[in-house]
């Protein structure tokens, strides 16, 4: 916002046409939501396909980053649920 000189509380309707076009151009250069999700899923799929340790951990729904598995793996199971079925 500072780069485009737009006040942080400004509404889109109150912006000038040039500011809206500049904002649109800036957003088109960024990687946003669905593209990032697809990129993340592709990275996990690549790890699984090559048979890497991290890929196998994702596939089994276990902690990937070295957390302990003797106890308290419920949180990791919740967090890895999205990656497992992707």
Which properties best describe this structure?
5 helices, elongated, mainly alpha
Alpha carbon gyration radius: 20 Å
What's the N-to-C terminus distance? 34 Å
Q: With helices defined by DSSP (H or I, 4 residues minimum), what is the helix count?
A: 5
Strand content: under 5%
- SS-based structural class? mainly alpha
Give the helix proportion (percent range): 55-70%
Order of helices and strands: HHHHH
Q: Pick out the low-confidence regions.
A: none
- What coarse outline follows from CA principal-axis ratios? elongated
Nearest-integer average pLDDT? 83
**How many strand segments?**
0
Main sheet? none
Structure report:
The protein is mainly α and 86 residues long. The chain has helices spanning 17-29, 33-50, 53-60, 74-79, 81-84. The chain has 5 helices and no strands. Helix 2 (33-50) packs across helix 3 (53-60). It starts with 16 loop residues before the first helix and ends with a helix.
Short description, anyone?
This protein has helices at residues 17-29, 33-50, 53-60, 74-79, 81-84. With 86 residues, it is mostly helical. The longest helix has 18 residues, at 33-50.
